[in-house]
Amino acid sequence: MGCNLLAMYFVIIAVDFGLGNGLKYGPCKSKCKKLGLAGCWRVCRIETDDVIEKSCWNKCSNSIIMGQNAEAALRGCIHQCRNCVLPSNQTDFVKIVDDQYTAEGPVFTKDGNFYMVATFRNEIVKVDLEKRNASLFVAPSINGLKGYPVGLQCDSENNIWVADATLGLLKLTQDGSFKQIATRDNYNNILQGCNDLTFDYQGNLWITAPTGPIFSTLENYTDSQEEPFGSVYCYNKTTDEIIKVTTGFLYPNGIAIQHDNNGTPKKLIFGESFNTTAPLWSYDIVSPCQVENKQVWGNLPSKSMPDGMDFDNEGDLIVTDYSSNYVYVFGPNGGAPICRLKCPFSAITNVHFRPNSTDLFITEREFHGLWKIQWKSEGMEQYCERV
Ligand SMILES: *[C@@H]1O[C@H](CO)[C@@H](O)[C@H](O)[C@H]1NC(C)=O
Ligand SMILES: *[C@@H]1O[C@H](CO)[C@@H](O)[C@H](O)[C@H]1NC(C)=O
Ligand SMILES: *[C@@H]1O[C@H](CO)[C@@H](O)[C@H](O)[C@H]1NC(C)=O
Ligand SMILES: *[C@@H]1O[C@H](CO)[C@@H](O)[C@H](O)[C@H]1NC(C)=O
Ligand SMILES: *[C@@H]1O[C@H](CO)[C@@H](O)[C@H](O)[C@H]1NC(C)=O
Ligand SMILES: *[C@@H]1O[C@H](CO)[C@@H](O)[C@H](O)[C@H]1NC(C)=O
C-alpha cells in the first residue's frame, strides 16, 4: 500500500501536461531549460504509464553539463531511471524457493524439468516449481575434486551443459551421470574455470571463463577480479574443440547471442563484472566460433556488476546486476538501458524464461532464492527449443 501511494505521488509531480505536446518529465524540463537547450518538450517527452524514479534522476542528471551531448544525456537519464512497464507490478514477484547456496544458472530442459545451481554447496538442484521444493540432483566431482557449477543450458536431447569454475565444461545426462568435455583449449592450454554459457542457433556453445586454471582447489583458486585474464570460449560442436575466442577481461560474466532474422548468429555479447564502467562487450560472429570487431555494446550504470543475461523475443536484452536490486533492460542496439526493474532482493545473478511463456525466472544471492515474474513478452527461443 505505502509503495503504491508513493508511486502515485511520483507520477503526479513528475508529469507536466503540456498543451498539445504530450507528457513531459518536469525535472527534465527544468534541467533542460537551465542548460539553455531548445526543444525541451521533445527531449523530456515520456509515455503515459512511465514512472521515473526521482533519486535516480537526480543522481544521473546532476553530472550533465552543457555541451553537444547534453540532449542525449538527458534522454539517457530518463530511460535509465524509468521503471520497466510490465503487465504486473512488484507485488507479483513470486518466491519459488530460497536458501539454495548460491542460486544461479536457472534452466528448463526440453521435457519441462527445471534445474539450477547451489554453487556454494557445489550442487546442481532440481526444482519442483509447483511444490516449490528444491532437491539435490548432482554434486559433480572428479577424482575427489568438488565441482563448482555456475551456469546451465539445455540441448535437444535433454542433456544439461554445465559451466563449472573448477571442472570447466561438463555434459550432464538426466540420469545424473556426466562427462568432462575437455581439459585443454585449442592452444593446448589448460582450460580456465567457466561461469556462464549459451548455445547459438547453429549449436555452438559460448562460455565465459573468468577464473584461473581448472583443477584448482579452494586454496589455490584464482579469478580475474583484479588482473584482466578473463576469457571467452566457443565450443565448436563439429570439431569437438574448445576455442579461446578472446581474453583480457576483468571477470567476463553473463553471455548472450544475437541472431539475424534468418537465425544466423550475428553478435556475441557478454558483461565484464569487475570493470567499474560496467560494460557489455560485443563481437561480430563471422563464421562458426569465429569473431572479430570488439566493441562496447552498452554500459550499465557505473559500478554495476553485470552477472546474467537473456534476450526476450522482442530483441530486448535483460541483464542482472549483482551489485544492486535492479535488472536492466537494453534495446536491440545496446547503448544505455531503456528501463530498469526494481526487485525485492539484491545480488541478482541470472534470468531464464520458461519456453513459450512470459514467465521469467530470476535467481539471487540475498536470500539465495529463485523468483518468478511475468515479463512483457516471451523469451527469445533457445537452441534446444528449435531442434
Ligand atoms: C499491483 O498489483 C496488485 C495485484 O495485482 C494490484 O492490486 C495493485 O493495484 C497494483 N498496484 C499498482 C500501483 O499498479
Ligand atoms: C522435497 O523433495 C524431496 C526429494 O524429492 C523430498 O525428500 C522432500 O520431502 C520434499 N520436501 C517438501 C517440503 O516437499
Ligand atoms: C591446486 O592444487 C591441487 C591439489 O594440490 C593441484 O592438483 C593443482 O594442480 C593446483 N592447481 C594450480 C593451478 O596450481
Ligand atoms: C573497462 O571498460 C571500458 C569500456 O566501458 C574500457 O574502455 C576499458 O578498457 C575496460 N577496462 C578493462 C580493464 O577491461
Ligand atoms: C567450427 O566448425 C566449423 C564446422 O562446422 C568449421 O567450419 C569452423 O571453421 C570451426 N571454427 C573454428 C574457429 O575452428
Ligand atoms: C512451443 O511452441 C511451439 C510452436 O507453437 C511448439 O512447437 C513447441 O512444442 C512448444 N514448446 C514447448 C516446450 O511447449
From TrEMBL:
The SMP-30/Gluconolactonase/LRE-like region domain covers: 103-363
- The signal peptide here is 1-22
Ordered alphabetically, the record's keywords are: Hydrolase, Signal
Listed GO MF terms: hydrolase activity
Q: Which InterPro entries does the entry mention?
A: 6-blade_b-propeller_TolB-like (IPR011042), SGL (IPR013658), SMP-30/CGR1_Lactonase (IPR051262)
In Swiss-Prot or TrEMBL terms, this protein is called SMP-30/Gluconolactonase/LRE-like region domain-containing protein
Task: Give TM regions.
Answer: none
